[in-house]
Amino acid sequence: MPTSAATHPPQTTGALEQLVERLFAATSAEALAVACQAFADANAPGVRVSWRHDASASASEGAASIILARDSRATRVLEARCPHASSQDNAPWPWIARMVRQRLDQLTDLDSLYGTVARLAQAERLQRALYTIADLVVAARDTTSMMQALHHTISTLTYAENFYVVLYDHVDQTIRFPYYVDSTDTTPPDPDATRSLDAIAHEITWHMIRENRSFMGNPETLARQASGALVTPGVPCADWLGVPMHHGDTVTGGLVVQAYDQRACYTEQDRELLMYVAQHLQTALDRREATAKLEDRVTQRTRALRETNRMLQHQVLERQRGERLQAALFRIAELASGADSLDAFYAAVHQVIGTLIYARNFYIALLEDHGDESVLVFPYTVDQIDAAPQPRTHGHGMTEYVLRHGKPLLVDDVDTERLLQSGEVSALGSRSTFWLGVPLIWNNKVMGALVVQSYSEEHTYGPRDQELLTFVSYHIANALQRRQANDELKQAYVEMERRVVERTRALALANRDLRKQVSERERVERRLKYETLHDPLTGLPNRALLLQRLEVAMKHYRADPTRLFAVLFIDLDRFKVINDSVGHLVGDDLLFQVGGRIRGCLKSRDTVARLGGDEFAVLLESMRVTDAAQSVADRIIEALHKPFRVGVKELFTSASVGISFATPAYRHADDLLRDADSAMYSAKAGGRHRSATFDDRLRHQALEVLEIENDLRRSLDQHAFVPYYQPVVNMDNGRTVGYEALLRWHHPERGVLLPGDFLRVAEDSGCIEDIDWQIFEQVCRDADALTGDAGCVSINLSARHFRAPGLEERLLQLLATHHVSPQKLRLEVTEGTLLESPIRIKRALETFRSHGMHIALDDFGTGYSSLSYMHQYPIEVIKIDQSFVANLEESDQNQSNVVVRAILALASSLDIQVIAEGIETPLQEHVLKRMGCRVGQGFLYARAQPIEVLTQAAVGNFAAHDTSRPAADA
Ligand code: C2E
Ligand code: CA
Ligand code: CA
Questions:
Q1: Ligand 1 surroundings by CB, under 6 angstroms
Q2: For 477-531, how does the pLDDT look when each residue is reduced to its tens digit (9 = 90+)?
Q3: How many angstroms separate the CA atoms of 274 and 245, rounded?
């Protein structure tokens, strides 16, 4: 700033004094400058005085400067800095300058003191205001009052007649003015209304928020500060101060103060103050927001809790109700199975229902099937007015209504009236105020109803009661059904029990019968057992029992060799003769007595058994001495020799006894018996009426027998048995009228053997049957060649054949196979064979006879010499045994002659042919012929010859062979 140069010295002392006075009177740099300017104007034209207040200058430098300028270059009013003034204008300016400076320094000091005091005061105020703000923020009841208080506080610190708070939501980009005070604005914005930030686009507030910084100053300054255009709606302000509020980096709004008449009233201090307030306000708002959110959450939570609580309470109530109902149902179920009677059950059900609803009046109605119609009965009724209804059919009451519809019925007075009017029901019993009936349904059929009723307004029923009773009714129906089923079951049980008792009784009876049968059977069994082990005739043990005891004895002997024992085989001599002569009954009697006598010769521990026929056996145990057996045998022989008395007859017999002793060599009881038997045979062979012991000789014989047996079996396989044929001759003309097939054995070592050499062994071993069949077959082959058109071949049949079944068929089949006519065969059986099993043999012989076969009785006269039974059998021929023939003599007094003549006479009377056997001499032939015997066989005519020999010679010419006896016969 150019000032006029102080080219002129002061005109007067008065002027200087005046200046000095004024300088000292001046209380500010400005006043100093004014005084200096006035002095310069008067005394030094061209000197311009200016002043500057430097707020930022330090106290020592002075806050204000007075500049005296002569030219364009400013000069500070400091001595050192006024060289121009001092050099160009020596007086009075340097002095004035010194004065001014002095005064300025004084003022500066004063100023700085005042300033300090003012600052301190301001600081204190500010401090207090800040505390207040901080307190306000915490303490204010609501946002509005807090803002009001803030406003008030700010007002104490700066000019804040117009103040507003703007809040910005950066997410929605909306703004709101929760507090707005403006002296020019009569329609402040709604504190709760939000609007888009863009609604105030380019206004200074918009800039502040967008740019997130404070603005301060007059409109021009603001326009400079703002980036971009700035618009000012409404009354333009003179000065404006706005600071943003942040939350972190995010703008959340701002605080604004403005002045419409005072320019530049806002300072940095105000800005700081406002920023401070903004910061606190933000914190307060955050806190308030947090609190609000918290409160909101608490409220929500409280509401939720209250809701939950309400529901829980509801649930508890429901559950309590459910429990009560459940308990009731349990009770009903329990009653259904437990109560003794249906009546008790109904009463209990009533009681249970009473715990659930008002049931002072209650009845149960049930439909009962009575054949073609169902009757409604009331098995249970409790009513304060009415008596129990009578059973009824075709009724029209409310109960029937329920039954008809199969649905519950809940009616009050009015409903009942309507039902009555409509004719759906007719009045039965006293009218109730409330009537509730539910059907009892089972098996999909309405079976009855449960009814509760009330006669007063006091007790009502609602849908809930109906629901409850319906629910209960299901269970009661269920229980009733179960009960009914139970009752039926009980009935069935009773019935079953009755039947079980009946059945048990029947069973017991059957059992008794069975036991009787069992004991009877046991008795029979015992008896059978006894019989199988005993001889029925004598009551003595039989062969089986004897063998059992023998086995036991052998076991003992094996364990203790000193326990020696012996077996006695007893055979009556010539018993068969007695039997045939005096009859079976006497014979049996005799056998019985024989058993007794043998028994009498023994110690009690010994066993006597009847083996069959006239054979007995004795087991002598614990024989100390071998002689003991012998003496027992002697005693027996002696006892049996004494005469027997049978009826009036006196009979004599004798016995042969064979003895065998136990030796370690024996394996089977059978063997001991067999050897005793052998010994017995030996005794018989020795002349009968004696005993023989099975010794080495007999053992040797036995071994021989064994050997033969083995050879026999082997020879069977080799077909070593062949028939030799002996002619049967008509003695009158010497012609052969037939042949007898006689068995020969072509023994591999011993040559041709006769039956006498092996027949007994063959019989005993059972080989004879197979041997015979081999013979029979060969006979069949030879028959035609031997007989031509007439005559027949004899075969000898062992008694054993008749024991096996199928003999007849087999033999006939054999003949058929070989195309041999049965007439060509003659069967020779001995008397002994006939006696063995008369019935069986009779039947067989009759069969053979019926087929045309011939039957001859062989060895006649050796056996039981009885012709009495002859007529029973289909016998055509008898053969006089050769023993009689051999003893024939010329004299007719000879015993054999007598017998032969008797036989011939008898045969003649029975029309039976006779063949004499063993004719060896012409005398014999002669005597026989004289006695009338026409047919015979014997060496006189021919010996037996093999078929080959016979067929070589002319049939009928036997003379050539008569003398040639086969080697085997020699
Ligand atoms: P048997 O049936 O009485 O047979 C007659 C026996 O007398 C035969 O003995 C025969 O050779 C013999 N004989 C014939 N003429 C005379 C004679 O003038 N003087 C003497 N001393 N003997 C004469 P053989 O052949 O030794 O037969 C003995 C017995 O064997 C037969 O007696 C018969 O009982 C039996 N036998 C023979 N062949 C068979 C057979 O094929 N089967 C069966 N089961 N037994 C047979
Ligand atoms: Ca014969
Ligand atoms: Ca004979």
A1: 726, 741-743, 754-756, 759, 768, 772, 775, 796, 798, 858-859, 882, 917-920, 937-939, 944
A2: 877 787 777 778 888 889 999 999 999 999 999 989 989 988 988 888 888 888 8
A3: 10
